[in-house]
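call fold(seq) -> tokens
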Amino acid sequence: MRSRRGRAALATLAVVLTLTSGCSFGPPGADEAGTAPNLPAPSVAATASAGSGADREVAVTVLATGLEVPWGIAFLPDGSALVTERDTARILRVGPESDADGLTVDEVARLSEVRASGDGGLLGIAVSPRYASDRTVFVYYSTATDNRIGKLVLGKPVQPIVTGIPRSPQQNGGALAFGPDGYLYAGTGDGTAGGTQAPSPKSLGGKILRMTTAGKPAPGNPVKGSLVWSSGHRNVQGIAWDATKRMFATENTQPRFSELNVVQKGKNYGWPRADGTASGNRSVDPLIAWPTARSSCGGVAAMEHLVATACLLGKRLYLLDVTGNGTVLGQAQELLTDEYGRLRALVAAPDGSLWVSTSNQEDAGEPDPEDDRLIRLVFSDGGAGRS
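ret:
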């Protein structure tokens, strides 16, 4: 397999961000496996001001450069990250080793089954909760005719466990993650101009699916024998849970608004009749919605009271302080606005930091010589990234 190293990986950015005092990262939950990668300390710590008047530092570190549309990020027990590249169909192992140039980057798999075009290709990735014994990872990927979820041991062929998810040029979903209940969740895209599949119980399009590691409907799903957990989605590209096991999902590529939803069992999120607003067939309104031109968000991460989303058209992160009863406290704050271009993947690392990827090596992007990049955010007062 080909090996390479990130270039200029210790570049840091000074930013000023106003946050409420409740917005801080904490240590990862007990169900998050992994140890911190062996990272060199950032050379610069940026300062962010809290709403209470206290200051907190936010360190922004570029971990790796020269990637090609990195889409999904998931962590192995040794602290290294597996990163998918949408168009090359490669799975990369990033870290945990590092040197003066940053984290090492090695190709560990390339999936010949993937047919990339539009926003389809090799998308989400999730690591088995029992990886130490089964060595299995799960991927969401596009073929010429459908989207699929498969499992594989790195270096061996992928085994499809769910097929027939609708394939389209621009609405393929791709979110993939294990929930705190131990089951695998996937976000799919509607894939039709009129949004006909999102509300249909007979289609896997425009849904969040919940399954066993064999790809079978998980016990307790809303309809016995069905993979569907929630419906009425346009294009789910990010899912995450907070410490209370509350589930969040982004809604990408809606014409007017990009939504952040709190996902509940069996609920309908309104597409195609709803686009960021209430409608007659919508059972749950979004937690928050932004105009698409300032958002079009992909990845989402949740830690303690902080929920963050990474935005493509908006070229920024939004950070929300979400209270215990599920309401947003104050206004959404912004970070990295126009600093790194389009932002896509966003995950909470095992050490409590955030990792985000850029997505500039695609038709809509304007890449610079270092794109695409993996970036790490550490909020010093909340314990993120501390040993």
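Residues 90 and 110 are 4 Å apart (CA to CA).
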